[in-house]
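Quick start: read one record
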Amino acid sequence: MLVAVDIGGTFTDIIGVKDNGEIIYYKGLSTPKNPENGVKEGIQKLGISVDTLIHATTIATNSLLGQVNLELPKTALVTTKGFSDIIEIGRQNRPELYNLFFQKPKPLVPRELRFEVNERINSRGEVVKPLNTKEVEEIAKRIKADAVAVVFLHSYLNSVHEKITKEILSRYVKYVSASYEVSPEQREYERTTTTVINVMLKPLVSKYIESLWNEIKPKEFFIMASSGGLIDANEAIERPVQLIESGPAAGVVGVKYFADEMGIKNAISFDMGGTTAKAGSIVNGEIEITNEYEVGGRTHHGRIIKGSGYPVRFPFIDLAEVSAGGGTIIWLDEAGGLNVGPLSAGADPGPICYNKGGNLPTLTDANLVLGRIGEELLSGDMKLNKELAIKGLEKLGDPIQIAKEAIRLATLEMARAIRLVTVERGLDPSEFALFSFGGAGPQFALGIAEELGIKRVLVPVYPGLFSALSMLLADIKIEIRRAYPKDVDVEFRELEEELRRKMSSIDYFLRYADVRYKGQGWELTVPADGDIRRNFEERHRIAYGFTLPYDIEIVNIRVFAVKRIKKPKIMLKISDNVKVKERKVYFDDWVNAKVFIRETLPIGFRDRGPAIIEEYSATTLVPDGWSFTILPNYFIELMRE
């Protein structure tokens, strides 16, 4: 049994595939304090034993955001003499330019746990001041911490001092990370924060993975990395910084897989769950990747506010994320203005209609009151209380008008996230197909499409479980890099040989280069196959609208080793009897809408709105002016008429 598990802020999703292609699934409320309990409960209810477990986890993000019961370990930093304050000085980014009382993020390592070593390697990688091992031994004896990060100046060019220091410190401290194995590239501040965050996460992630492994007892265990590939459990324990955006990455991978199958070159991935909505883009068949992310900071309408958190230099699928999910709270400010989010009711207590003690109205309550979702979810396993939802919204005003306006505001916010990954990159969203999934995504997809001028929307199979399903379609993918290569071709081959020593089987390599014009401060990552300059100038023209007649320099080279995972054949059980009923639904006004059960709609079935399509894990809204068709791969294709 191949099983994928996605733990979200509201729901825990489990999806498994048997040898004959039969899909089994479970969707239940998450258990935030002990997330593994929700996984164990779901697997017990399915009554299965797990051969291969693939998992997306939010434990890395949640621990950095200060979730209760996820206490970060006391961490020390060992660095070059004179550079112990770099982690506090940082960059001169001011997220609040006119706030005279702005305070920078708290340093990850307090001053009393920063130690300096009198060694030095220069900017050409030459040893200027040799390492004194006795000095390192003395420092090791003085360190009173659970984890240690080692970051020496210019170690990305020559890591000899870091390797020796790590070996010595490992005799005294259990968890040690050195920058040459986590982030071997220039920019001392970013390299330091990345290494410190990596070692901070090591104890938590290793304990969590070991606990889940012991509970489930799979033969193989893989984790979804932020780059969109799978890594094995040991790699996740050694470099847990890869897991920071583990969950959101999965859905984009699934969208690319199906977009390739359907011959779609440009696609938008829109994932709306119980807590947040995430948007990503696939341009010319390629997922957009970024090499820097800022954790523990703030966002503004989907944009990360630079300088409000801690930078991490590692490959991430480029996503815009907004606080809009089924559990997002609707509230009035002091002036009586209606607001949606950013706070969420989460899984506990959840929306008012869950009848679990929640008393703050949410977007789920709004959709229930408007008839857009039924009074039963999960094929009847979860009952919703419409009367409680109405009473909750009545505290804010007329429940219908409040619900309608809240949904409009949420739609605008989510459309803004999609604009970040399209319009702000010079791309026209109307030229993209919108793939909408997540438990709440298909409820809002066509409203967002109308806002952006998108004419084609696709709702995949098992939309509320799609991120979990997508993990079954991902490949194993591990990245290593090298700074300032002297001979690009030779050093690419050396990195590939290093990856062969790490992985028992590799199907192919992906080569990338971080390139800039000489004199520029920042670089662009481009494919390194073929003419690197041409690839760079094409990307530069798209990003900035111009090119320059200057020489280029390659700052870093990166190689991904990819091992293909056999993709499961998905078999769906479709009833021969189309089930349809009617209920009153509020779109622009109250209308009698047909309500279909998706599991009964055969391939080729076609109808038009106003309609509702209900299924186990999601509800799709089809307003007037849109038609829908069931495609051969069981996707719902929605087209503007």
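The longest helix spans residues 188-216.
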